[in-house]
Design goal:
- It is built from no helices and 15 strands.
- It is mostly beta strands and 239 residues long.
- It has a single domain, classed as ntegrin, alpha v. Chain A, domain 3 (Immunoglobulin-like, Sandwich).
- The strands form 2 sheets. Strands 2, 3, 5, 9, 10, 11, 13, 14 and 15 form a 9-stranded mixed β-sheet that branches.
- It is globular, with a radius of gyration of 22 Å.
Amino acid sequence: MFHQWNEEPTTTTTPPIMQPQIRKFFTNSTGGQLPYDGESFYVNISSKGPPGNKRFDGANPQHVVNIVDFQNGGNVINSLNITDYLPVDWIASPLGNSIAICKYTSLPSGFPYNLGWPSLSCTGGTQLATVVNYGGGNYTNTYSYGGGTIDVNITTVGSFPGINHVIMINITGITINPGEHIVIVIKTEFAGEGQPYNSGYFDSGTGPLGSYKLFTNTARAEWDSNSLTVSESYRGYAK
Protein backbone atom coordinates (compact mmCIF):
# COMPACT_ATOMS: atom_id res chain seq x y z
CA MET A 1 0.00 0.00 0.00
CA PHE A 2 1.26 3.43 -0.90
CA HIS A 3 1.20 6.02 1.84
CA GLN A 4 1.36 9.70 1.04
CA TRP A 5 2.95 11.92 3.65
CA ASN A 6 1.75 15.48 3.97
CA GLU A 7 4.79 17.56 4.84
CA GLU A 8 4.70 21.13 6.13
CA PRO A 9 6.29 23.60 3.71
CA THR A 10 9.69 24.78 4.82
CA THR A 11 10.48 28.46 5.22
CA THR A 12 13.77 30.29 5.46
CA THR A 13 14.15 33.14 7.92
CA THR A 14 16.58 35.87 6.95
CA PRO A 15 18.41 37.32 9.95
CA PRO A 16 17.65 41.01 10.49
CA ILE A 17 20.25 43.44 9.17
CA MET A 18 22.25 44.97 11.99
CA GLN A 19 21.58 48.68 12.31
CA PRO A 20 24.37 51.14 13.16
CA GLN A 21 24.07 52.87 16.51
CA ILE A 22 25.77 55.56 18.55
CA ARG A 23 25.79 55.84 22.33
CA LYS A 24 27.20 58.25 24.91
CA PHE A 25 28.57 57.53 28.42
CA PHE A 26 30.35 59.35 31.26
CA THR A 27 32.90 58.06 33.79
CA ASN A 28 35.42 59.56 36.19
CA SER A 29 39.15 59.55 35.41
CA THR A 30 39.73 56.17 37.03
CA GLY A 31 37.10 54.52 34.85
CA GLY A 32 34.39 54.45 37.51
CA GLN A 33 30.82 55.71 37.55
CA LEU A 34 30.00 59.34 38.28
CA PRO A 35 28.00 59.97 41.46
CA TYR A 36 24.22 59.68 41.05
CA ASP A 37 21.62 61.86 42.80
CA GLY A 38 18.70 59.45 42.23
CA GLU A 39 17.73 61.18 38.99
CA SER A 40 20.94 62.00 37.15
CA PHE A 41 24.69 61.60 37.20
CA TYR A 42 26.40 64.69 38.61
CA VAL A 43 29.56 66.48 39.65
CA ASN A 44 30.11 69.04 42.41
CA ILE A 45 31.50 72.46 41.47
CA SER A 46 33.18 74.22 44.36
CA SER A 47 34.20 77.80 45.05
CA LYS A 48 36.74 79.51 47.28
CA GLY A 49 37.78 82.93 48.50
CA PRO A 50 36.18 85.75 50.49
CA PRO A 51 32.68 86.99 49.58
CA GLY A 52 34.05 89.97 47.66
CA ASN A 53 36.47 87.87 45.60
CA LYS A 54 34.91 84.43 45.39
CA ARG A 55 36.02 82.21 42.52
CA PHE A 56 35.17 78.82 41.03
CA ASP A 57 37.51 76.14 42.34
CA GLY A 58 36.99 73.30 39.86
CA ALA A 59 34.86 70.19 39.85
CA ASN A 60 34.76 67.00 41.91
CA PRO A 61 35.50 64.61 40.35
CA GLN A 62 38.11 66.79 38.69
CA HIS A 63 37.71 65.10 35.31
CA VAL A 64 34.68 63.75 33.49
CA VAL A 65 35.45 61.23 30.78
CA ASN A 66 33.11 61.51 27.78
CA ILE A 67 32.80 58.26 25.82
CA VAL A 68 31.29 57.87 22.34
CA ASP A 69 30.51 54.33 21.14
CA PHE A 70 29.73 53.99 17.43
CA GLN A 71 28.85 50.49 16.23
CA ASN A 72 28.80 49.77 12.50
CA GLY A 73 25.75 48.19 10.89
CA GLY A 74 25.43 46.03 7.79
CA ASN A 75 28.05 47.48 5.43
CA VAL A 76 31.81 47.94 5.58
CA ILE A 77 32.85 51.52 6.38
CA ASN A 78 36.20 52.93 5.24
CA SER A 79 35.64 56.57 6.19
CA LEU A 80 33.97 57.80 9.38
CA ASN A 81 33.59 61.25 10.93
CA ILE A 82 32.74 61.66 14.59
CA THR A 83 32.17 65.12 16.07
CA ASP A 84 31.87 65.53 19.82
CA TYR A 85 30.37 68.76 21.16
CA LEU A 86 31.56 68.92 24.76
CA PRO A 87 29.23 70.36 27.39
CA VAL A 88 29.42 74.14 27.59
CA ASP A 89 32.28 75.22 29.90
CA TRP A 90 34.10 71.88 29.69
CA ILE A 91 37.29 71.35 27.67
CA ALA A 92 39.49 68.39 26.76
CA SER A 93 42.25 68.23 29.37
CA PRO A 94 45.29 70.07 27.94
CA LEU A 95 47.87 67.94 29.78
CA GLY A 96 48.49 64.21 29.84
CA ASN A 97 46.46 61.70 27.89
CA SER A 98 43.42 63.63 26.65
CA ILE A 99 41.76 61.67 23.82
CA ALA A 100 41.94 58.05 22.69
CA ILE A 101 40.49 56.61 19.49
CA CYS A 102 39.84 52.89 19.91
CA LYS A 103 38.54 50.06 17.73
CA TYR A 104 36.81 46.98 19.15
CA THR A 105 35.60 43.77 17.53
CA SER A 106 33.42 43.37 20.60
CA LEU A 107 33.22 45.59 23.65
CA PRO A 108 35.09 44.45 26.77
CA SER A 109 33.29 43.19 29.83
CA GLY A 110 32.15 46.05 32.03
CA PHE A 111 32.09 48.62 29.21
CA PRO A 112 32.04 51.64 29.42
CA TYR A 113 34.02 51.44 32.64
CA ASN A 114 37.76 50.76 33.07
CA LEU A 115 38.99 51.41 29.52
CA GLY A 116 42.63 51.58 30.53
CA TRP A 117 43.06 54.68 32.67
CA PRO A 118 45.22 56.61 33.14
CA SER A 119 47.09 55.57 29.94
CA LEU A 120 43.96 55.46 27.73
CA SER A 121 45.15 52.08 26.44
CA CYS A 122 41.80 50.96 24.94
CA THR A 123 41.72 47.87 27.15
CA GLY A 124 40.47 44.87 25.18
CA GLY A 125 40.64 46.68 21.83
CA THR A 126 43.00 48.34 19.35
CA GLN A 127 44.41 51.79 20.06
CA LEU A 128 44.29 53.74 16.78
CA ALA A 129 45.55 57.07 18.17
CA THR A 130 46.02 59.01 21.39
CA VAL A 131 46.19 62.79 21.84
CA VAL A 132 48.73 63.68 24.55
CA ASN A 133 49.66 67.13 25.91
CA TYR A 134 47.93 69.12 23.17
CA GLY A 135 48.20 72.25 25.32
CA GLY A 136 44.63 73.59 25.17
CA GLY A 137 42.95 75.93 22.71
CA ASN A 138 42.80 74.94 19.06
CA TYR A 139 44.65 71.86 17.85
CA THR A 140 45.07 69.91 14.60
CA ASN A 141 47.08 66.75 13.98
CA THR A 142 47.07 63.66 11.78
CA TYR A 143 47.88 60.22 13.15
CA SER A 144 48.63 57.08 11.12
CA TYR A 145 47.55 53.53 11.74
CA GLY A 146 47.74 50.46 9.47
CA GLY A 147 47.83 52.42 6.23
CA GLY A 148 45.00 54.70 7.29
CA THR A 149 44.85 58.10 8.93
CA ILE A 150 43.06 59.67 11.89
CA ASP A 151 42.66 63.44 11.69
CA VAL A 152 41.94 65.20 15.00
CA ASN A 153 40.76 68.80 15.09
CA ILE A 154 39.95 70.61 18.35
CA THR A 155 38.18 73.97 18.14
CA THR A 156 37.59 76.34 21.05
CA VAL A 157 35.01 79.12 20.71
CA GLY A 158 34.19 81.78 23.31
CA SER A 159 35.27 82.18 26.90
CA PHE A 160 33.94 81.20 30.33
CA PRO A 161 31.07 81.26 31.01
CA GLY A 162 29.89 79.95 27.66
CA ILE A 163 33.02 78.36 26.22
CA ASN A 164 32.37 75.75 23.51
CA HIS A 165 34.85 72.97 22.78
CA VAL A 166 34.33 70.83 19.66
CA ILE A 167 36.38 67.76 18.80
CA MET A 168 36.24 66.48 15.20
CA ILE A 169 37.75 63.10 14.33
CA ASN A 170 38.00 61.77 10.77
CA ILE A 171 39.03 58.14 10.29
CA THR A 172 40.03 57.29 6.71
CA GLY A 173 41.43 54.10 5.16
CA ILE A 174 40.75 51.94 8.21
CA THR A 175 38.19 49.19 7.62
CA ILE A 176 35.30 49.11 10.10
CA ASN A 177 33.43 45.85 9.58
CA PRO A 178 29.77 45.21 10.44
CA GLY A 179 29.44 44.83 14.20
CA GLU A 180 32.73 46.53 15.02
CA HIS A 181 32.94 49.54 17.31
CA ILE A 182 34.81 52.83 17.17
CA VAL A 183 35.05 54.26 20.67
CA ILE A 184 36.22 57.82 21.36
CA VAL A 185 37.39 58.50 24.92
CA ILE A 186 37.79 62.17 25.95
CA LYS A 187 39.07 63.28 29.35
CA THR A 188 37.55 66.69 30.14
CA GLU A 189 37.81 69.29 32.88
CA PHE A 190 35.76 72.26 34.03
CA ALA A 191 36.92 75.46 32.29
CA GLY A 192 35.75 77.83 35.02
CA GLU A 193 38.42 77.10 37.62
CA GLY A 194 39.82 80.39 38.91
CA GLN A 195 37.09 82.47 37.26
CA PRO A 196 34.83 84.85 39.24
CA TYR A 197 32.05 82.97 41.01
CA ASN A 198 28.39 83.58 40.26
CA SER A 199 25.74 81.70 42.23
CA GLY A 200 23.31 82.34 39.35
CA TYR A 201 25.42 80.00 37.21
CA PHE A 202 23.42 77.05 38.57
CA ASP A 203 20.21 78.02 36.82
CA SER A 204 19.07 74.88 34.97
CA GLY A 205 16.81 73.51 37.68
CA THR A 206 16.54 72.09 41.19
CA GLY A 207 17.38 68.48 41.98
CA PRO A 208 17.73 66.35 45.09
CA LEU A 209 20.99 68.13 45.99
CA GLY A 210 19.89 71.70 45.21
CA SER A 211 20.21 74.03 42.23
CA TYR A 212 22.24 72.67 39.34
CA LYS A 213 23.74 73.50 35.96
CA LEU A 214 22.87 70.96 33.26
CA PHE A 215 25.84 69.91 31.12
CA THR A 216 24.83 68.28 27.83
CA ASN A 217 27.24 66.37 25.63
CA THR A 218 26.31 65.68 21.98
CA ALA A 219 28.08 63.44 19.48
CA ARG A 220 27.42 62.99 15.77
CA ALA A 221 28.69 60.22 13.47
CA GLU A 222 28.74 60.62 9.68
CA TRP A 223 29.65 58.06 7.02
CA ASP A 224 28.74 57.70 3.34
CA SER A 225 25.40 59.57 3.19
CA ASN A 226 24.35 58.53 6.70
CA SER A 227 24.45 60.18 10.11
CA LEU A 228 23.48 59.47 13.71
CA THR A 229 23.36 61.85 16.70
CA VAL A 230 23.18 61.20 20.44
CA SER A 231 23.00 63.50 23.48
CA GLU A 232 23.36 62.77 27.20
CA SER A 233 23.60 65.08 30.20
CA TYR A 234 24.88 65.29 33.75
CA ARG A 235 24.36 67.89 36.45
CA GLY A 236 26.74 70.26 38.17
CA TYR A 237 25.79 71.18 41.75
CA ALA A 238 27.18 74.11 43.73
CA LYS A 239 29.30 72.71 46.53
